[in-house]
Design goal:
The structure holds 2 protein chains of 2 kinds.
Chain A (H helix, E strand, L loop, with lengths): L2 E3 L18 H20 L4 H4 L6 H31 L6 H24 L2 H28 L4 H29 L6 H33 L6 H24 L8 H19 L8 H24 L8 H38 L18 H24 L2 H14 L1 H15 L17
Chain B lengths: L1 E5 L7 H12 L5 E6 L6 H7 L3 E7 L2 E7 L1
Parallel strand pairs in B: 1-2
Antiparallel strand pairs in B: 2-4, 3-4
The chains are: A mainly alpha, B alpha+beta.
Amino acid sequence: MKSASAANPSGPGPAFLSEAPRPSLPMAFFLPAVVLLLAAAFAAPFLAVKMADWTYQQEILALVHTVTLGFLLAVFLGASVQLLPVVAGVTVTRTLFVRAAAVCYFAGTLGMVFHFAVLRWNGLVLSAAAVTLAVILFFFAVLPVLVKAPSGPVRLAFVLAYSGLALTMTAGLLIGLDRRHAFLPGAPLNHLAAHLNLGLLTTFTAAIWGVSSKLLPMFLLAPAPDPRRQSAALLLLFGGAVLLAAALWLGWPSAPFAALPAAAFLLQVSLLRDLLRRRRRGRIDAGFRYALSAYADLFAAGVVGLLIALGVGKGTLLSLRLPWVYGFLLLGGWVLQTVVGILSKILPFLVWQAVYARRAGLGPLPKLADLSSERLQMAGFVLFRIATVGLAVALFRGRVSELRVAATFLAISLLPFTVHVALVVSHLTRPRAFAASPGARYASAH
Amino acid sequence: MKEVLDLRGLPPPEPLVRTLEAVEALPEGGELVVLTERRPVHLLPLLLERGVEVSLRELADGHEIRIRR
């Protein structure tokens, strides 16, 4: 048993934050991210004709990077500065670097999206360099916190996800430079496939599994997953995804290299099953429903990926449609759905902590659930679930009219999530006053 | 007088809220022992702001926070 005094935060092991976390740091990433997600979602129906064609077209690349950089990675960076201090018990002190990183990051992301859309490679490489600089600034700011985090699956997941991000960005920069100077061996389409898999598996999936191993037990009142098995799942995933990406990059048969990520998936699902069985909170709210149901999409993406790797439908129309389905299931079904769910869950907590925690014990407070509407979130989850299945089917069929309808429905399905975010964030500027009532409980997570 | 508050099994931010409610009711010279499942990382700055003495002990199944006014 360890003990520490609050007056001496440098006591044995990290215990407390020395000061209240600053909500403005994660918000600098979260809020622009939601705007960019909406922009991408409502732009997608206009690209239905492109979606009926092959995958790697300039407009599609612009759309995909709006989602991956504009939303997914931005949320991951924001969640890092929210969650890492909690894990490490150390506040982020280099806040100026985080804020500079956020500005540079979104400027670079918008530049990349624009230059993809108009297909100007010099501008694209410069914009990508701005994103790279932003990520370096961000790493510099969070490194002291990461170093002090106790060793375990959460820290491992962050280390792996950051390493995966560095690999993905390096691959992306090399691909961009190769368009100007053609120096990379192998086929450009193979490089793009490797870049996509690196980003979605080593960065986002590692991050999701790590963050989930902290959040799910916390909110579902379940024992934390066995650290050894959780770490094994993360290492299998990361090692396997890097090998898979290398095989794709070099044009080797990729099917054998998919075995490690597949084993990691099975291990992760068994950890998740244990956690859900042993939870003491029966009800699973909308945020976690997004995150948990997304595992079905990850499984489906794995099956489709295997079909592609085995060369199913080679030389036929199927070989044109399967990569679409694979990419969408992995990006929209798995990563996007999970990140929307996690953000739905952590944002109210962040805002409640920033606005109301200081008043606890001094008077009545809103509950976490009072910050938004659970019904609204549940409606958003159901609509999004239907929309992702619909778009996956439409992408498989490849008909423009169906793609347009499905993409429009997906964009609409994100509106409840956006309203949820707006309602929650409104408490930052307009904290609600709650009148005391006899016997009323002051706050609850339910 | 020592009061013990077992807040294990409660989801966030319930332990934080109940601890601060109990701190407000704590008389001068009183001591409060709070048991939580997770490390109470967000609680310290708020306790320090309220001018109480705090010490933390890690238990096999959670954490023990001793608060003195």
